[in-house]
Amino acid sequence: MQPTNFDLFADHETEQQPRAEQIGEQSWVLRGFALPVVEQLLPTLDTIIGAAPLRHMMTPGGFSMSVGTSSCGTLGWITDRSGYRYSTVDPLTGEPWPAMPQVLSELAREAAQRAGFADFHPDSCLINQYIPGAKMSLHQDKDEHAYTAPIVSLSLGLPAMFLFGGFARSDKSQRIPLLHGDMVIWGGADRLRFHGVLPIKPGRHPQLGERRVNLTFRVAGCL
Ligand code: MD3
Ligand code: FE
User: Fold this and answer.
1) What pTM did the predictor assign?
2) Which residues of 71-110 are buried (b: 16+ CB within 10 A; e: fewer)?
3) Which numeric CATH code is attached to 18-218?
4) Is the per-residue pLDDT at 219 higher than 60?
C-alpha cells in the first residue's frame, strides 16, 4: 500500500523520538536518548571527576582494572583486596561521593520510564572511563542490595561493543554497539545476565576526545 501524507508525517515525527530497540525480555536500547542534554551534562561530569578523581581500582584478585572509575550519589561502587562493595565514602579522598546532579538523575529516570520502569530513583552512579584498549570482562552485577530496580546506562564518547550474555558465563553473548548518547535499561530477569565490553578501539570523539565514558545508574542500597 502507498503511504499517505499522514503516514509520512507520522514517520517523520517518530524519527524525532529516540529509537527503542528491545535486546532482551526486559532490556532496551534507546538510541541517542541523551543527545538533547549531553552538552549540559559534560561540565557536570567534569566537576564530579574533579572532586572524586577517576582511579584504577584493584580487584579482590589483585589486578588493576583497565577502566578508571569514580562515582556520584549516596553510594559509590568500590573494589580492593577485601572485595567488591558499595561505600558512602570515596576511599581516595575520605569524603562522601559528590551528589548526583539532577540533570543526570532525571535523565536516568526518564530513560527507565520509557522502558516501562516507573519511579526509578537511583542512589548511585558509577562512572567508568575507557581509554582505547580498556575493556570489561564478562561479569554479573550482584553487589546491589536488591535486584528489583533496573540498571540504566549512558554511553559517551568513543563507541563500544557491548557483550550481552546469558545467565551462565559460558552462554553465547549478543554483540551490541553502543554509541555516544545511547542509553540502555536492564531490568527484571535480564538484571542478572552476564555482560561485558570488548576493548575500545583507538579513535577520537569530537566532544570527549580519546575515551569512552559510561555512567551506570543503580539503586544500590535499601529501597
Ligand atoms: C546488563 N559497565 O559498570 S554498561 C558495570 O559499559 C558495567 O561500562 C559496562 O558493566 C560499561 O558494571 C556496561 C552496562 C550494564 C550495567 C549493568 C548491567 C549492563 C548490564 C546489569 C545487567 C545486565
Ligand atoms: Fe556490569
Assistant:
1) 0.92
2) bbbbbbbbbeeeeeebeeebeeeeebbbebbeebbebbbb
3) 2.60.120.590
4) yes
